[in-house]
């Protein structure tokens, strides 16, 4: 008679055994975006197409509404990764932060705003802004700094040649333009296209086309998080790169259909037209690498606006090794 032997596992050993057998474990990442914007289409594609899941990540997206609150969430541990303007990493660094934010994956590579006029301007030139009332963005933020940079490049002194308004909160700028006396406003999509469709404004120029390549919106995290979770950051970057490639290969309408759940109050045709504008001016980065030329362009824009607190070298606040590894593999 054969003697049957049973494997007896004590509770602690059993837990270890079951953990080793579980190959479907995911890593949770708290992701904070500075605002909800069509400009961030590849990020929503990465979520909706399951690219994060393919990399073993469970991404919890929260909108933190503003650069200051987004960076506070990141630096305090309320978020693991932040999607925000790369200028914020320079502001934090200049405050002698011990554990400052590192830019590791670029999402957008141009300004995302458009110049919208209240009245039709079929023959618009930048000189038309002279002596006008211009409703701008928050002082020290990328939209405002790029706006001022473009105006100066076109011979307009924003503080002397026009009436520049900067006292309206970001979320209230569209409403203030409609109800106020401003002749021009700087708007993101899809608001710019919605205004044009409804006859409340007319798109006359693109700040993205005028300003050139700049690391406008970037994924960043604390250096300590990279040190402790490098594999997760690499996996995150892989998912973003997949999304960037998918956006490049697919039509604006197909992209709009995928990200429509994030913009339930906007018609599909407006989403499609807005995405097409961004694709035409190469606003969506095709890969996550933030190169030195773009970084220097950012600093030039900040310096021109009088907002550069320190001349921080590219290698100090930008990690390209992760993105390069992702692309090469």
From TrEMBL:
Keywords: Signal
Domain of life: Bacteria
Record-annotated membrane-spanning stretches: none
Family according to the record: Belongs to the bacterial solute-binding protein SsuA/TauA family.
Subcellular location: Periplasm
Signal sequence extent: 1-22
Protein name stated in the entry: ABC transporter substrate-binding protein
